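Section: Multi-chain targets

For targets with more than one molecule, the full set of components is provided together so that the structure can be written out for the assembly as a whole rather than chain by chain. Components appear in the order listed by the source. The example entry contains two components.
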Amino acid sequence: MPPGEDNTSGPNAGPTAGTGTADVAAAAVANADAATSGATTGKVASDQLLVTALLSNLVLPGVGYLLVGRHFKGALFIAVILGMFSFGYSLGMGCNFTEQAQERHPVMYVIQWFSGAPAAAGYVMRPDTYPDGAFDNPKLFEIAVLFTCITGLLNLLLFIDLSGMPARDALKRRLAARKETDAQAAAQAATDGSKPEEPATA
Amino acid sequence: MIHALLQSMPPFLGEFVLPFLIMGLGISLVTAGMRKDEPVQILLEALRVFVVLVIGFAVFAVALFLLGDPHMFF
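Its structure, encoded as tokens over all components, is:
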């Protein structure tokens, strides 16, 4: 049987063009759903990868994006967040994780710990004695703690963004499938509409 | 080093303009990276967000001067 005759045979081959369009649409949406859900083993593997990416992103900001294959985003986030943290830590002369910072800004002191490994490294490398001039200009010290605090908040934002990435990708695939289906339906309607006109013009 | 550099600048520049420009650049790059996928789109979106942030900072600074107390925050 020629491949072209498959469309004209079978139980779904209706007499109207509308039924065929609905079948094409249903098949496309079903394919998108199948691609979204995937096989069971594949879904478990992707869930494990997502959990690994989320945890590693909490430890080192941006690494989770590298694990899920978003290399440019991961490199960008690593560079920006580590750069901002280094700027704040250097501006505070390493005093961002000292008792002085905890007494002055208790909430921001806690939030900056969400930066992960950079915060742990900053805590380990904190000076034993306060350097000269560290608190001469208190505004600069507040800006320094603000920088490391913003870094922690941005890392939390990345965590939320990464956790919602599978749902967004599935939605994009469904929208792309629907757009393709609409285009196919429009093309089919155009061909069906032109067929009756051919005998009339002839 | 950065502390000494900002300390040597005029207060308006070292305590307000430069830190918040750097902070705005970082925030705009991260938020643009979350919204877009392609590298060029990310950079364009970051530029757009950064321009909006700079305009916001400028309006804030002008408002401080118009209030008559420019040393309220710096």
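The interface with chain A takes residues 1-3, 6-7, 14-15, 19, 22-23, 26-27, 29-31, 33-34, 37, 39, 42, 74 of chain B (CB under 8 Å).
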